[in-house]
Here is the input.
Amino acid sequence: MKSSSLFIPLFLIIVGALWLLRSLDLFPATTLIFAFVLMAAGILIILLDGINKQSIVSGPLLIYIGLAIYAVHQYHYRIDVFFALGMMVLGVLLLIARTDAIPYKHGKALSASNHQNNLNNANNPNHHS
Here is the structure.
């Protein structure tokens, strides 16, 4: 049996099983699953990528969005409060990422210094390529 022909039967089995679990209230709400997936993705980004200028923004931001979705769904907090707080959190994370204490992602520091050298060479009339 071809692997492409397995897609439809497996898809139907998985969707049917999830639908059954949801219908029997044995499966959490999709919103909660989405919130936990976002939080887990944020934690995994930090753990797998380490602390760098990209992960210091994306990891905590995904965790914050997941927590906000969870709080709005479970406790019926106002979403506009989380949007306002989220803007402040993102601003703080972007400022932290700009500091010299946070390293570039592997290989990015080299490309950033190469970019600066290219700019310096373009502005130097004595430099011939």
Q: What stands out?
A: The chain has five helices and no strands. The CA atoms of residues 51 and 102 lie 7 Å apart.
